[in-house]
Amino acid sequence: MDNAAHRLTGLLPAVCFPFLAQLPDTFWMPSQASTTAREVDVVFYLIYWISVVFFALIVGLMTWFVVRYRRRRPHDAAQPAPAHSTSLEITWTAIPVIVSVLLFVVGFKSYMNMVTPPRGAYEIAVTGQKWNWLFTYPNGHISNELHVPVDRPVLLTMTSEDVIHSLWIPAFRVKMDVVPGRYNRTWFEAHTPGTFPLLCTEYCGVGHADMLTTVTVHPSGRFETWLEAASNLFDTLPPAEAGALLARRLGCVACHSVDGAGGIGPSFVDLYGSTVTTRDGKQLVADENYIRRSIVDPMAELVAGYDPVMPTYAGRIKDQEITGIIAYLKSLSRHAGGDAELETAAPAEPGVPTEVR
Amino acid sequence: MNTGAATIADRSNGAAGRPHGENYLNCASGWRSWLFTLDHKRIGVMYLAAILFSFFLGGIFALLVRTELISPGHTIMDADSYNRAFTLHGAIMTFLFIIPGIPAALGNFVLPLLLGAKDVALPRLNLASFHIYAIGAVMAVAAILLGGVDTGWTFYTPYSTTTSGQVVMVTLAVFVLGFSSIFTGINFIVTIHKMRPAGMGWFRMPLMLWALYATAIIQVLATPVLAITVLLLVAERVLGIGVFDPALGGDPVLFQHFFWFYSHPAVYIMILPAMGVISELISTHSRKTIFGYRAIAYSSIAIAVFSFLVWGHHMFVSGQSPLATVIFSALTFSVSIPSAVKVFNWLATMYKGAIKLETPMVYALSFIFLFGIGGLTGLFLATLATDVHLHDSYFVVAHFHYTMMGGVVIAFLAGIFHWWPKMFGRLFSQKWGNIGAVLVFAGFNLTFFSQFVMGSKGMPRRYYSYPPEFEIYHQLSTYGSYLLAVGLFVAAGVLLHSLLAGRRAPANPWGGATLEWQAASPPSHHNFDGPVILTDPYDYSGLVWDAAAQGFVRTAHEEVVR
Predict the structure, then answer these.
(1) Neighbouring residues of B400: CB distance < 8 A, sequence distance ≥ 6
(2) List of chain A residues whose C-beta atoms are within 8 Å of the C-beta of residue B318
(3) Which end of chain A has a smaller Cβ tally under 10 Å, C or N?
(4) pLDDT tens digits for A72-97?
(5) How far apart are CA B159 and CA B128, in angstroms?
(6) Pick the residue with more confidence: B482 or A23?
(7) How far is CA B77 from the centre of its chain?
(8) Which pTM does this prediction carry?
(9) What ipTM does this complex have?
(10) Cβ neighbours, 10 Å, residue B520
């Protein structure tokens, strides 16, 4: 089956019958939603049927012997039979050896696929903490539920803030411990859009059973849309706090300090509303329009005494985000609103948003 | 010849012939005569009582856990109490019940008798082992009364070094209990080496002795690692020395390596003597020579050796290197082979036997069924691809209960019923004994088979609550646990009734060919009243049913040892 047709059939149930988005589960296994799941289930059922045959043999023989050779009278003795048989014993040692080698090899091959993420996998950072999950996407967006694109390898790089947790997605058949002080990785490629349970399976205390969330597999092309919408902080946060978050995420604060210290660029503290001197000697008030110009065209009115190193953010930042950053700078400035009372009433940077992790 | 046979028969029924019926139970009285006895039989009986009490205590916690899980959310306790309940269930069952169960209680009683000996080689060390066990048990119970622990019986760091509760007290109890186990192991090794009667070469020993010997090797070599591990844990917790906690510069996965370096071999400390019991029982109750003696003996040693090489299979998803994981998977499969060989040998022993479904045999057959499932489901966990999915789920919980309870505990019960007439000189009701065994079997399967299904479907272990789709499996499991409890109470009732009103047992009620059946039931203080006649432990040809004695008597013998 070629990839497009494959994708289409994978999508079909989700598109036509949203409530049937998940493939039905079986007696033993939850629905299969990743490429790994198929591989694991093949191995599972191979072992299962080998076990059923061995078990039927053992219990069948046992039952037959108990019925056939039961002691009818107290003094009945056993019938003559050999006390050992080299050929028989070699046979029943060799068969388990062969089965073991077979299972080891089969399990090994699948496992190597499971621990070897393909190149170019979409990377999401996972943090486990008592008792929730944080998923950080490449654009800096953080969510508590995992969202992934369909038919694309996803690599999870995981660490813990406190004790050991373990991330398990039964529908994907993947699991990896989330250990403090180190990074563990796991990867998967979801092939079925839908929402599946994701849970902690290493005991971590009172909230262990509450540490469950979901992974949503977005149909082709929808993941990017979701991420963009979800990253839009302005729906959920006041502009100043969203701006603070953006200032961190976009890397502004690496050069512009938020505690008044010097840096590669002017400190954000008290910047808004202050008077700045540009390299060509102009005196300007750093108002909304100045800040906006500095973001989209930093070289135009560079402040004297600083190197021309700031990259332009034109095309990388939306108007709404600029507005948020301006709101943040206002919150850091005693010149905000031009109100003299502010200076005395709030010496310690009122309205500085709490640090958002 | 005839006279000789008659003499032996008389001596076999020696209990009746001895004046006043004096035996090890009534030869001395008063609590000091028990608490400070050097008699291996009395120490064995005290161990048995203490271990059964621990089993009861652990069982109470099991029922609390199962009852809480009958529905999602709060049923009878909050999450914190639930975490303490499953931790205590696991810790008590493991350290106070299953590990000492067969070696310390049954092994202490039968090992010298199987050798035709008067006692173990080091009786004072034996008593010290029991006293240390008692101290450890008191520490564990004290920790429970002071609030318990919520770490799980595995004490994984950094949870165990940061949580509140009696972690230090409980881990020190484990430390103390370890010495009890080491002392028993040393004693058994020395006794088997030095006290075999002339003529009993290594390959003429009953297989129970091979099993206890293999167990003792693991006890002596592995237990010190656990002792060191819990001391490091206590050092980290009390003194803030960073060994395992990454916040202090330690490595939490290191703890898992240390812990499982002991605790995986410990699984074989549990199952090896159980296999020894089953080897004796299948042969005796089929009245047929054990099939493939050497293969069973060697497989015990093989299991003991392999048991040290597989600990990493508990850590396939811990973040240990994939190379280590692959090697541990391969080594783990090696353990399955000697285990499978034993099962085939037991089946071949029953072939053309004269099988009687006496209560010990019913438990032994139950063992083969349940251990079969426990062993085969181990294949899913040894295989890397499937273990990743099944690790830390209820599938694992079901697997180790099938081996630890369906295997070890059922074999322990089989052994208790088998040697009960020898220990206390009383017969028990076969009918009610078998009813109890069937109830235990049915209840056990109902409890734990449903856990396989919910585990592979995505139910993690140690969860206080769960999504509604798992409710049906949890309900089946909980009702099964109640049935299991009823079965165990029936079994206990049968034994209590036997003590109070059971018929007097003959010296050899089952027709066993091993030496303990030559002693009276119960044995005298010195075990054997006359010379011990060394016979092949699995040759039943000389034993005939004596209707008058309601037991078996020997009509011929091979050689006199002393």
Answers:
(1) B267, B374
(2) 177, 179
(3) N
(4) 998 889 999 999 899 999 999 999 99
(5) 34
(6) B482
(7) 31
(8) 0.84
(9) 0.91
(10) 26
pLDDT score for B49: 96
Token digits of residue A5: 């047709």
Of B559, B511, B430, which is closest to residue B12 (Cα–Cα)? B511
What is the residue type of B148?
Answer: G
- The CATH code of domain A1-70+117-230 reads 2.60.40.420
Largest CA distance in chain B: 80
Q: Are A107 and B378 in contact (CB under 8 A)?
A: no
Average pLDDT, chain A: 85
Six-digit token string for B259: 């812990």
Kindly determine whether residue A70 and residue B393, on different chains, have CB atoms separated by under 8 Å.
no
Place of tokens 């770490």: B151
Give the nearest partner residue to B453 out of A28, A115, A209, using CB atoms.
A28
Query: Tokens for B91?
Result: 């810790």
Please determine, looking at this structure, whether the domain spanning A233-345 carries the CATH number 3.90.190.20: no
How far is it, in rounded angstroms, from Cα B546 to Cα B16? Answer: 15
Domains and CATH numbers, chain B: 2-560 (1.20.210.10)
How far is it, in rounded angstroms, from Cα A265 to Cα B22?
99
Domain ranges of chain A: 1-70+117-230, 233-345
pLDDT tens profile B433-446: 999 999 999 999 99
Specify whether the CB–CB gap between B511 and B111 falls below 8 A: no
From chain B, pick out residues whose CB is under 8 angstroms from the CB of A184.
319
Both tokens assigned to B280: 């004796």
Note whether B290 contacts A83, CB cutoff 8 Å: yes
Same fold, A1-70+117-230 and A233-345: no
Give chain A positions within 8 Å (CB) of B391. Answer: 175, 201
DSSP A94-149: HHHHHHHHHHHHHHHHHHHHHHSPPTTPEEEEEEEETTEEEEE-TTS-EESSEEEE
Q: Of A313, A133, A323, A145, which is closest to residue A227 (Cα–Cα)?
A: A145
